[in-house]
Structures are given as structure tokens and as C-alpha cells.
Write a sequence for this structure.
């Protein structure tokens, strides 16, 4: 039978129960040789497992909470949970304008400011697409193509019009792609033109709205194009070959070479896999995967053996977006083991016009980059690290003109095309300032603690750079780096912080740290930090409660004959072990009704007690640490329906 809880037991004392841990009632086995002990907690806080940062363990009063590595990515709100994921020790809560990536071999891991971006070619068009043919960079812009032969020039290369129309009427350049040294432009009704040998020429009559490059094979590479709801293998003149036809009104959205197959996404929520036929002479449909009923796959990417895709779900005039990782099954040609890595929404805003879906996914040497119009409607990049699977904000264009339409990596720099603004380039100078916010830590106990000291681990500050270190006990402050709840502990303008800094009058269950980095006035130098440590004493008034709980099969109730329930003791002990280490409430029904809030520190093994008189008992000793909670001013009942303290009287141990 299930153990009684607040939903099933209205009169626990009448059935011999003496305490409640969380929602479950247990019988106490208190006796002359089995006392219920309530004592004051010692000054030294309970020893906490800090295996993720063993270098911070030291023989001193108090307990330590530290964070020294951050390459696991953002999104961790609580550092101390009962069953942390393996990567949680490497994660943080949030960041902005901070470069976060694994340390190189032989180097300490640190975080610093990201490079700033600069607009190198302005454009009010929304159809910006990028290509590189080995000698020049191309960007589709309105009815023309912009061309630059030196995009990495210190002052910014010169971008000039490079018309692809070759005597035909000017029309919008719908898409652009390069295959080796050849550049293809989708020109809608004018077909597909290509630039080869330094000149543009009409190539295919297919009235394409999108064009992509795919894998190279023994027969050469593929150029694929979309016209309305049909995906084609583009060929010269009228020779294009239809591959897959969607339903009426559907469109093709994106395409990527995923090694074992070419993947194409459509507005109907499916991803289609194309591969060579048995004769290795043509492409054919190999498989398809439905990934969403309400959203479309807006962008596709491939790297490190994984398929990456983003979903776009319309909301009002905008959309929410999400980023997913999956694998391609080489036998069925379907996507398997899909998991969501990040979601972007309107964050409780009434403005549903921004389109937060990632519109472009690009794989670079060690990371996957997503172009996102993020929270605050600022267009920029997010970075997915292929080594750690951590996600963090990356380059920021500081533009709210539109979505990121394309991303390109050239000469160890990133180029970001923003609809309505133009082309931005990663610079060699740095952002003015940035911040990293760590997770909340409570040392695995719900009680109030006195946070008495903090230490910032940073590289030496030079060249007029600056580092500030803040702390807060308010969980809501994590959402706002400028919240007044943040208290500054360190303002480092030169050198390093040699000693622990005192924190006076800081009490609370949680603490979180925030590091702010400031570049030099010329933005040519940036500081770097490695981590931070907090030290805490247990809060005043904490108590240790050690109580014997019956773990046998024999059930005793006041005024009734004992009965035997086979397997009951095993279930009771399993239930207690299940809450070991958990933060919850302890409600004592006897000898006096008291409510404590804290942590189940230890659950012992069942032992058989042989008293001098009476029957043998099976007892489990449970140790609880926490603070007492006043019961005045309300009815906090040990039973259901919140009754029992204000209107009931107990005489002689019976209700």
C-alpha cells in the first residue's frame, strides 16, 4: 500500500504518525534508549561536496561556493541541486558581450570581452545573402550584387555593385551561393545566372527563388534550387530536374549537406533526405522526418556528426524560435535523438512583432553560429561549442533593423548580414563592456546563511581596463544586470585581488556572483577573469534534529492491536532515501507541534533494536538540519484541507 500523505491522511495522530517530511507521514520510534534529539547547529557549516572545484577546498571555518569554469554554456539558474547534470559545474546563468569558450591545452580557462562589430556595407534590402569564390566576397542586395576583393582590410574593403543581369531586366536577387570559383544567383523569373571566369552569364531557365550548393561526388557538385513548391536539381537551360514536390502553397526553406544525405526543410514541418540512386547517376528522395506540427524548420546546419536545425513558430506578426540538435540515421535517412538546446521568445513582452527564430546556421572550425534577433530586438550571433555543447551569446551588431539573414566566416573573422541594415564585420577592437552572471548557490541547504567573504580570480588588470565583481542574494536580480540588488564587492583597476574581500551584513539562502568587464578607452585592450568564490557561515538559529523513524513491517496505533504489513518497512526506508539531500519541511506532531524548514542531511540504514522490555523494532535514524518556522497567524496542518492547529484539541495521545 502507498505511504500516507497530506492528500490521503486527515487525522495522522490517530493512526500513530509522529512527523511529516515533505508531504509524507512517518511513525516515530521514540523510546527511553531512542530519544528524539533537537540541538543547536555548530558554527561550522555541514561539509558540502564541491567535487567540481576541488582546488577551492580548504581547511577553514564556513563552506565555500565557487565557479571557476564556464565553457558549459548559459542557462543554469541553481548550482546546487540534488541530481546535477555532469556539465552543470561548467555552466552559468547569463552573459552579454563576453567571450566564453574552452581553454586551449596548457592554458587556464578564462573569459573576456568579445570583439565589437562594424557596419562595412550598408543596405536597406531584406534579401541579403553571402558567397565567397576564393578571391572575392559577394552579397545579394536588392536588385544587385555587392562585391569586395579585400573584405578583411583594416579600414574595411570597398564594396561595389556587380550586376548579375547581363542585359536582362533588373529583378530582385533572391539568393546567392558559390560552388568553388563559380557564383550562382537566383533571379526569379529571369532564371539562374552565374559568374564564372570573371563575368556573369545566363545559365538556367528555372525561375528559382532559392539556390543552394551540395556535396561533391564522382560526378561533381550539385546545385539545387526551389521554385514555388518544387525542389530541383538545377541544370543549364531547360534541363533542370524536379526532385520533390510539396503540397500546394508549401515552400522550400533551407538545405544543407549532411554527409550521408542532403537535407532540405519545408514549410510543412518536414525535413527531407536526398541521396544518390543505386546507379549513382541522380539524386532521389531517401527519407523524410516530421519535426513539428505548428512550426517550420527555418534553418539547417551540420557539424561534428550532428544535424542542427531551428524552428520558427509564428506569433502575431513575429515568431518564437528554438534551436535543436539531432542525428541522421544512415539506414532510414530520418532524424533521430532530437533535443532542444535553446528557445527564444518574447520574454513576457506585449510586443510580438520581433522574429526571434534563427534564420541562419553556419558551422565554423570549432563552433556552430546562429543568427538571432534576440531579446531586446538586437541582431547578433549565438555560439554552440562543438567541444562542450555549451551555448552562449556571441557577436552583437547592436542593430534592431531586422533578422540575421546570413553568416560567413572568412580570414578568422565573422561577417553578419542583417536585413534592413547591411553587412557587419567582426573587428580587432573590443566591446566597451560586458558581464557574466553566475548561478545561485545555497550549499545544498534551504536555511539562511551569512555570506561573509568573496574572492575574485582574475588576470592582472593593465592598460586602463577594469573589472567589477558583484554579489546578490535576490534571485530576481539574475534577470537584470543593472538591478540595485547587486552589491559591488571589488572594483579592480590595476593588478589582481590578492585576498578574500569581506561581505558585511549579507544574509540569505542564495548567493550569486556577477563579473563586469570594461575595455580600455581605445578598445584595444581587454581584461580577463577566471572565476569567483564565496564563503558562508550557517545562519543563526539553525538546529540539528536526529530522530528515529520506524522502518519495520509492524504497524502500531494508539489503543489498537499491532498489525503486520509485509514490505512496509522496505517502502518506508526507500521513501526516506529518496528525500535524502532534499530541501523540504519537517512537521513534528509530537511532543509539540513544530515546523522546521531545511534539509534532510542523512538517512541511516535500518537497524534492529532489542530493548530490555517490549518487542524488537526496526529503526532508521534520520538527521535533519534547518530553522524553525513560526506557526502563529495561520493554520499549517499535518493533515489535509489545512485544518488541525486552530480548532482541534488532543487528549491522551488521541484525536
Amino acid at each position: 500500500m502507498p505511504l500516507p500523505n497530506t492528500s490521503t491522511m486527515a487525522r495522522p495522530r490517530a493512526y500513530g504518525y509522529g512527523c511529516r517530511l515533505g508531504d509524507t507521514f512517518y511513525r516515530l520510534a521514540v523510546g527511553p534508549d531512542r530519544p528524539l534529539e533537537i540541538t543547536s547547529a555548530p558554527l561550522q557549516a555541514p561539509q558540502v561536496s564541491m567535487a567540481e572545484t576541488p582546488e577551492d577546498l580548504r581547511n577553514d571555518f564556513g563552506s565555500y561556493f565557487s565557479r571557476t569554469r564556464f565553457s558549459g554554456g548559459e542557462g543554469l539558474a541553481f548550482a546546487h541541486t540534488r541530481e546535477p547534470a555532469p556539465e552543470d559545474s561548467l555552466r552559468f546563468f547569463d552573459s552579454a558581450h563576453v567571450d566564453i569558450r574552452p581553454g586551449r591545452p596548457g592554458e587556464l580557462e578564462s573569459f573576456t570581452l568579445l570583439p565589437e562589430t562594424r557596419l562595412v556595407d550598408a543596405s536597406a534590402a531584406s534579401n541579403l545573402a553571402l558567397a565567397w569564390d576564393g578571391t572575392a566576397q559577394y552579397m545579394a542586395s536588392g536588385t544587385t550584387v555587392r562585391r569586395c576583393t579585400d573584405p578583411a582590410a583594416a579600414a574595411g574593403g570597398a564594396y561595389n555593385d556587380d550586376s548579375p543581369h547581363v542585359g536582362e531586366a533588373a529583378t530582385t536577387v533572391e539568393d546567392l551561393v558559390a560552388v568553388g570559383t563559380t557564383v550562382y544567383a537566383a533571379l526569379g523569373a529571369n532564371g539562374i545566372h552565374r559568374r564564372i571566369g570573371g563575368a556573369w552569364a545566363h545559365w538556367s531557365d528555372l525561375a528559382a527563388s532559392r539556390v543552394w550548393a551540395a556535396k561533391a561526388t564522382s560526378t561533381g557538385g550539385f546545385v539545387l534550387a526551389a521554385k514555388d513548391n518544387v525542389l530541383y536539381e538545377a541544370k543549364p537551360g531547360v534541363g533542370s530536374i524536379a526532385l520533390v514536390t510539396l503540397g500546394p502553397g508549401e515552400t522550400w526553406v533551407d538545405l544543407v549537406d549532411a554527409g550521408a544525405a542532403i537535407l532540405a526543410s519545408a514549410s510543412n514541418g518536414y525535413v527531407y533526405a536526398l541521396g544518390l540512386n543505386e546507379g549513382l547517376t541522380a539524386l532521389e528522395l531517401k527519407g523524410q522526418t516530421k519535426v513539428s506540427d505548428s512550426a517550420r524548420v527555418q534553418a539547417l546546419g551540420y557539424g561534428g556528426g550532428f544535424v542542427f536545425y531551428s524552428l520558427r513558430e509564428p506569433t502575431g506578426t513575429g515568431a518564437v524560435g528554438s534551436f535543436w540538435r539531432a542525428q541522421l540515421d544512415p539506414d532510414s535517412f530520418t532524424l533521430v535523438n532530437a533535443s532542444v538546446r535553446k528557445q527564444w521568445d518574447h520574454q513576457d513582452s506585449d510586443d510580438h512583432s520581433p522574429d526571434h527564430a534563427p534564420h541562419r546556421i553556419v558551422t565554423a572550425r570549432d563552433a556552430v553560429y546562429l543568427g538571432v534577433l534576440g531579446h531586446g530586438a538586437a541582431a547578433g550571433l549565438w555560439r554552440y561549442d562543438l567541444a562542450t555543447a555549451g551555448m552562449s551569446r556571441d557577436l552583437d551588431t547592436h542593430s534592431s533593423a531586422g533578422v540575421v539573414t546570413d553568416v560567413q566566416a572568412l580570414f578568422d573573422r565573422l561577417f553578419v548580414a542583417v536585413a534592413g541594415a547591411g553587412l557587419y564585420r567582426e573587428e580587432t577592437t573590443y566591446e566597451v563592456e560586458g558581464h557574466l552572471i553566475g548561478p545561485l548557490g545555497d550549499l545544498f541547504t534551504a536555511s539562511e546563511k551569512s555570506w561573509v567573504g568573496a574572492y575574485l580570480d582574475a588576470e592582472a588588470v593593465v592598460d586602463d581596463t577594469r573589472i567589477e565583481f558583484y554579489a546578490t542574494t535576490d534571485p530576481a536580480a539574475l534577470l537584470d544586470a543593472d538591478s540595485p540588488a547587486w552589491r559591488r564587492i571589488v572594483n579592480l583597476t590595476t593588478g589582481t585581488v590578492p585576498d578574500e574581500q569581506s561581505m558585511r551584513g549579507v544574509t540569505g539562502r542564495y548567493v550569486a556572483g556577477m563579473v563586469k568587464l570594461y575595455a580600455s578607452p581605445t578598445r584595444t585592450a581587454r581584461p580577463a577573469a577566471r572565476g569567483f568564490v564565496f564563503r558562508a557561515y550557517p545562519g543563526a538559529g539553525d538546529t540539528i534534529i536526529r530522530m528515529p523513524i520506524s522502518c519495520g513491517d509492524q504497524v502500531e496505533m494508539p489503543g489498537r492491536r499491532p498489525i503486520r504489513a509485509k514490505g512496509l518497512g522496505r517502502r518506508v526506508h526507500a521513501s526516506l532515501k529518496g528525500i535524502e539531500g532534499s530541501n523540504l519541511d519537517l512537521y513534528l506532531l509530537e511532543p509539540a507541534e513544530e515546523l522546521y524548514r531545511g534539509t534532510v542531511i542523512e538517512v541511516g540504514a535500518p537497524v534492529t533494536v532489542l530493548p530490555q522490555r517490549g518487542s524488537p523494532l526496526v529503526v532508521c535514524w534520520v538527521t535533519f538540519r534547518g530553522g524553525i518556522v513560526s506557526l502563529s497567524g495561520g493554520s499549517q496542518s499535518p493533515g489535509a484541507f489545512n485544518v488541525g492547529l486552530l480548532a482541534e484539541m488532543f487528549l491522551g495521545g488521541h484525536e
The mean pLDDT is 87. The longest strand covers residues 617-629. The first helix runs from residue 568 to 578.
